[in-house]
Queue: 3 jobs
Job 1
Amino acid sequence: MEFLTWGRNPWDQSILTHVSWDLLWAALFAGVAFLLAHGGYMLLSAHRKRHAAETDALEAARPDLPPRIVRHSLAARLFHWVMAAAMFTLLVTAFLPIAGVRFAWVTWHWMAGLVLTASILFHVIHATFWLDFWSIWVGPRDMPELKAEVMREFGHDVPGPRPGKYPLGNRLYHFTIVIAALAVVVTGLFMMVRVRTPFFTRNPYLFGDATWGLTYVLHGMGGVALVGLVMAHVYFAVRPEKWWITKSMILGWITRRHYLEHHDPDRWKVRGAGPAARL
Amino acid sequence: MAVIRDPMPAFEFFQPTSVEDAQALLRRYGADAWVLAGGLDSLDWLKDRIKRPAALVDLGTIPGLKGIRDVDGGLEIGAMTTLTDLVRHPLVRERYSILLEAAEAAASPQIRNQGTIGGNVSQDTRCWYYRAGWPCYRAGGNICYADTPESINREHAILQADRCVAVNPSDTAPALIVLDAQMVIRTAGGTERVVPAEDYFVGPGIDITRMTILEPGDLLTAIRLPATWAGATFYFEKVRDRQVWDFALVSVASAIIMNGSGIERMRIAVNGVSARPLRLQAVETLVRGRAADEMTAVAAGNLAIDGAQPLTFNAYKVPLMRNLVKRAIRGVEPATWNS
């Protein structure tokens, strides 16, 4: 299997043109293999969950908390679903033609790309000024949590930290998808200069052949990575034990019980009382 | 990139005697196989060493792919029927003279003796950037060398360009679209698929690396002409740089059935303006019920070029196409000399 495709330009120089589309099938295979492996592991492993009595005690100790805890604001949820729709459109329009389903995909693709770009810009501004920006990021400070989570996955009852607002897996996924999405968005915006759109004057000479080749390769690699990442995201969203998180992305809130069972109240502080409290 | 016109690189050469055998060979060699009809498009590719197939499958030895048969008042033309045989056939002359004119406009007599109707409709674009072997979109790359500020793109597309601006070079394609021809395809899986001629061709928006819907392993086996448009009033005109032998800059084909002084129905198609021959359905709708006069022709011509986006050197194609559409509707007065 080849990873890259090359061509020779009119000056007889060897230039990159694309990633090999064999990588699409590799990403699909890797995605399916991961789903099967994780699904099998979840069936057979001894991963440690809180006992019901343990959570009952936590709930009894915090009668001040409202029954519903707001996890995602309306704006955050709108961003998520607009971005999801744009991402699905991008993947479908990019990869179905490669898989042999022919249709006029280019216009749909760049339009969805612009929607994704706009939604990401909105998200960055919204998260910076209205949300706890750093709550979704991972860093060295999360090593103790990582260690504790791994131990719990292997069935040990360890006292290490529990997640703040976002589980560790969620934060790692966010970090990965930020890299892949930024790669496709930035390269995609430059690639729009090569096709006819109402927004840019076509300029195939914006970059040299080598830089264009690299741009297309990065776009392809980001796109192929997103195939696997989106598969994993959808898989986790529909898993029964994660459904409460998915539901919160629809309704905006989680129950007090889920909050206490899965989160560290010291790391995700909920304030105020009433029908639904905010962080 | 140097163009090398010397003996071709070696390949296996097969002359199957049935479609089934041909397709078995195509399956065996996969992407390394090349289908040979008349060879007039193929030999350029091979001698220029741009295409380097491992095996050539010559369809010329399959008897079932040749000949013209009368079927229910229409005709079935084998895909390997030569353009000369088509031009000389009395039933083509009697019922579908537009196809005769289009086939006769293709290339030179020698080429028509060798070139086939299947090859003529399935041939690749003549964009010289693409045929030079450069990594353009159509060749699987990421640029159109013909759509840059200094490209030599006088012969390229003015309509429906999508990254690639190559045009379809077939002379018979617009005539077949006008005649509502049905393309009979034997798929790689062995089943028969029949598609209208206008759907046989594909633009770069749908598939940027192919000119037709033929998938690897598929073979065009025949072209069926229904009786629907037999004997209609036809018009075909091909404008080219050299009258003796050249590809079309723009060509137009039309069939009109009149009802008194009005146009009862019409089919019209153009080629040389897009990567696929275009049926002008908006024009067909516009002229229905109208007189075939100057006013209708002007309106139709203007409608035909709606959305045209000329490149640096091919703006002349816009008025050329408009005028050809006008001529297809109101006809052309015979030239007169006043000296």
Job 2
Amino acid sequence: MSADQLQFVCSVASPRSMYRGVHVSDESQQVIEWKQEDLGEPPMFTPMLVARQDIGHTVDCESDGLNPIWEGRKIVLAAGSRVAVGQTFRLQSGFNGILEFNLAENLPSGQVIVEPSSENGFTFKVYLARDLYDHLKYRRNEMPGTNIMVHVVSTALGILQRDHADPGDEEGMGWQSYRNLVGLAEFLQQRGVGLWSDENFKPELAATILYPHPIPAES
Amino acid sequence: MTSITTAGYQELDEAKYLQLQTSLLKVKGGEYQRELLEALKENDDFVGFIDERVETKEGKQIPTFDGPLTESSFKEPTEDQEHRMYQLWQEVPPSIACRVSFWAGVTLEHVRAGKITQATWLAANGGITETGEERIDRALSLQGAGAEKAIDDCIRRVFRRMSGLPAARGNRDVFVNPTFGRAWWRERIVSRVLGRHEQVESRPNLLDVVRRNQQYWENLVTMIVSRGSVFGSTDVQDALINSLAKHLIKHPETPFRSAAALSRALRRLSNVAASREIGVLQFYDISQIVDDLLERLLGVQMPSSDGL
């Protein structure tokens, strides 16, 4: 199959607001644009290679990676056939995509509130007093910033454990109906943290695995 | 730090609204549910009940519907009413129109403004035998487990009619159940198809697809928003609606007038789309694929009809 028989395609989807679009390019790198107002959640991307037009192809099992029974068979790939499909991905992953930090001018110094929200799929709105907000914005990786993150993530996981333990399914009301939470679950499992729906899940332990409390060297 | 802004339109505070839903749905037939049903009997009481618990976030307020509504037309607005609703609210972006807190706010404002003259309409079921008020009275008069279920059903109906339940049915409740939200989304799709450069079916024929019945609409929505959907572009959605409209006109006896048969056809189309990104094709070619599929399935399901 030659390169000129194929096109690079990337689908962009935000099912929550019924948005779907496909972007076609002759180049492997492409610039994709969408209107923010069309999206009800961060978009999901699926890259793929598709047949530009109908392609007649004689199977070579070795190069095509097929079972030998297909050797020498003539097949036609109709225009648009997916020749290769990459993993669907989101630009945001883990907690970065699920925490939304907001400045709460009315909160006294040092205070924080964490609330669940179904905005953008499912997020936690984190309201921070001015001093905490500024610290997280500019110096998150310093010790107080990490401690704040531990507190926020632990609280968020505690809320999930309390209110969203039922995984349900696509037809039901469980957490699996929120794509962000499915992504978060995968993120947590990859790090061996466990799931908030597990019987022995400990939010504070999960949070400190993800964001270990730093201790000053002199102590 | 967030990627999507929702600023700009008045809506209920989502976190508080979701908390209210969660707490009200926790105990079936409990005192809290009874309190809301009693409040529904007076518009001011209902508005007060919500206002006390859920803050309304400031923002641009969309106008309330400018025509008269009855309980019946609120449950199932006419084509003309849905069209006028969309005309009034078409500037609202999809990122807002997919939010339960937005449509809950819109519905609440209609009660506040007296456009929904009795808040009990929110509890009315789809049938015509019982008004919302009668349904509430019946639920409150029952005893035992029957009462718990009847009261809980009323509460769920109120939330569905206002806004949809947020995570129910894979996030598609907001497109399917709230009166105003459903009108907006149905009209938006029809307007989008009619706005295409290609020749498409007439507005009444397209409306016949999206307004066929509740289950039919829900099955179409499911096809688009479900997590496993492989329909890669809006063009495919438009072609499907247009081809269905054409098919229903061409074959008056087609089984694809039923929601169940539609689901079977959609599954077959999903199979095609699973290996082929038909969204990259021209609208005409996508339509041809859908037309052919429907005709083929019609031949299988109705071998003696239409000479196919």
Job 3
Amino acid sequence: MSWIRFLKRARWDQERSQEIEGYLEIETADNIARGMTPADAAYAAHRKFGNATLIREEIYRMNTVTWFESIVQDLRHGLRTMVANPGFSLIAILSLALGIGANTAIFQLLNAVRLRSLPVQNPHELAQIEIVGGNHGMGMNDGPDFGLTRPMWEEIRRDHSPFSGVFAWGEKNIAVGEGKDFQEVPGIMVSGDFFRVLGVEPWRGRLLASDDEHSCPESTAVVGYAFWQSKLGGREIDSNTRLFLDGQFKQIVGVTPPSFLGLAVGKRFDIALPECMPKQLSTNVFEESVMGRLKPGWTLASASARLEGMSAGIMAATEITGYNASTVQRYRQFKLAAYPASNGVSDLRRAYDSSLTLLLAITGLVLLIACANLANLMLARASTREREIAVRLALGAARTRVLRQLLVESFLLAAIGATIGVGVAELLSRALVLSLSREGDRVALFTGTDWRVLLFASAVTILTCLVFGMAPSFRASAADPVTGMRSGGRGMTGGRERFSFQRAMVVTQISVSLVLLVGALLFVRSFHNLMTFNPGMREEGITLAFIGFQKSNLSHDHLEEFKRELVDDVRSIPGVLNAATTTHVPLIGGSWGHGITIGKMDGSANFTWASPEYFETMGIPLVRGRGFSETDTAASQRVAVVNQTFVRRFSNGTDPIGQTLRTHPEPNYPSTVYQIVGVMADSKYENLRDETPPFVIAPSTQFPDQRPNTAMLVRSSLPPEVMADSMKRRLGEKHPDVIVYATSFQQKIQNGLLRERLMAMLSGFFGILAALLGMLGLYGVISYLVMQRRNEIGIRIALGASRGQVVRMVMREAGLMLAIGVTIGAVLSLAAGRAAESLLFGLKSSDPLTLVAAIGLLVAIGALASFVPARRASQLDPMTALRSD
Amino acid sequence: MLILQAIAPGPAHGHTIAYVIERRSEDVLLVEHGSLYPALHRLEDRGWIASFWGTSESNRKARYYRLTATGRKQLGVETSRWERVVRAVNQVLRPAEE
């Protein structure tokens, strides 16, 4: 097989046919010379030569690559068939493009969040060092990915034998500029070896190295590519490139490459600062993510074993202080281990992993329904092409050749659909990423098309092609040419078997649509439950503000006084009904807990220190006892209001009022005895989903760790958006040094329901799409059936069947398919529902109402879809029907 | 081999080759002249013969074939192999005739 020869085959064909012509001419001339008539001469020459065309073909075959040539022929023929049926092709390509596009888009997200490796050198060698099982909420925590303290990191840095290099990093918002231009951007604090161990090369200038780490406070910084482009205008980095960061000018020494967005997938850092280590390191602040690059020969398991051996020493050297004995004991038993880190760390992954997998399954099922529709369409079309195929078979085409031809046709459709689909996916995934982003919390994800995405898209395409092309092609190529020719344009009449295949397809479609519809209803209802859920406190008309007054230089003792003043200022704004300060804002994520002892019982409870107006502002009713007043001061008896869950957990049926609880000591939070003076109704705490924990509110005047910032909740008769502006203006006029961030409380809570909204939106969309596609399939098959049977129906009508009887007959057919499909679908959705259980709120996956509603909906539109062709059948004019056949 | 031998003396075109073979074999090897062409094509493909367009005796355009160097060598190889086969067959046949 020679490709050069293959490419020259046309030229050779021409050459040889000319040559053959030449032979014939010479021979004819010779024959004439021998005395034959010209006609006889030519005839004799031909006879002498043999079959010229056959010989030409023989030579041609020598030059060509048969299988390739015939596939090219098939492709060309397929294209012609496509162009000849623009309606069919358009529908097929469009539905495939959408189906494959949706699948690829979800896969792109899944790929970006879970599968893709970090764009660093040999990412598989990276390992994250963590405490096995986490730190059980000890001390202050910066999220599950940042599980080690700085002293622990110092110990690991000193001895890290399994690793060729180690580094630590943490996240921190960094203030850029000051005054009006002040802006907070996402930043990372990195240890000196961060960039070196990762193997990230500078895009401009240099990246941070060990030297940068020693200067404290930091004097150098590196910026991310996007920040460099947007804020520094992509200017060259030189000794004059400085930025005012966190209150002082810092030298910008370099830019990271565009592909490197940091190690937290879904986030992007704008500024990287060298980690500066103060002399006094807190042992109870868990804020570091420590990673290392494994030395050759070390595995995660062997590194973990080694780390476990080192753990006792590390914990002893970094022991937490200011805690009670049992906590310290627990700390000593912490074990370190190495975990894979090639994909980076990600909150997004934790939040969306199961949702994305589920969505991929949903889109896969939608594609399956679309394929079933296409298969039915192809079947219907195959019956009109029966003659063509019969003629080809009769002319000696091999069945395999016809089969291949038909498969190539479906492959063409699938391939074109897939190509458009990948484009669609690009747009879809970008839109999805955008919809995941919240105000002030952008999601930065690489959703481009890499080899995994391409592989996925091609696999899906081939699979689809097989699913929708295989059965019809086999069936068509197996046709008997004699029957095909004889029945001619009438189409097959006796194809009971063919119908059963189409019926099976429709039943599949119906059952799968039911599963998707049930899923959609579950997610929509779950989201509705969350949106209308009463968290036990006021959400509407509340403005949430974070106020910082670091610059006001207030002494520690005057901080509470200043907060009081701020509350009074805000309350004087027209439209404000009430306002309160608090150390912790409920329902927007985040929790604050302390270990407590009450009587003889040990336990833990969540704590908030709030101003007296808190209960009224948030509409949390006091069930018993009293709230706070001006008389609860820093000097008076420590008092607390507890919630009903607290009472149930700790009071054993005794009256909680007057009982005391003692907090366990922590740095800055010495052990304190609080007297319970009131009981408030239960309300949700960290978010809407979690169970209400035992919860204590104490007066803000008695907060042991006063800081120059506070959260404020403001209830107003004006919309929160308007209120936020007036607050900023009023406080800005009176206290120019104060930084105010204000937003709608309800909006903030709903931002936390993004995942639920996304699931409800997408599954709802796909559910409706699936139902529509399924019904389209049912409609198509019933219509087809009616058309095939119009002869019979015509006879029935002629023999006196009433319209109603005909409608009933057709509907019975449809009803049977619906019944079987719905039954299978119901069983499937009950089984599949379990996968969604953990994502639901306020209802079970086997929720009967949802199932019944979905079945009702499906049966209703199913009946409608089959009624239209049934009615058409009943209105057949028997004469025309009989004559036409 | 027959074709190679036919054009060994000098370039010839298809028509001539067909007649040369037919005549030399005293009309024993009578084939459709057309089947010569695929054979020519194959030989040319192997590089044993080369072709060019020329003008025939009767002033017609015709494709002439000539033996290449490899072709000439191949002719030798083929001829001696053929002779060996003939000798062998003859030796097998002769005792049977005796």
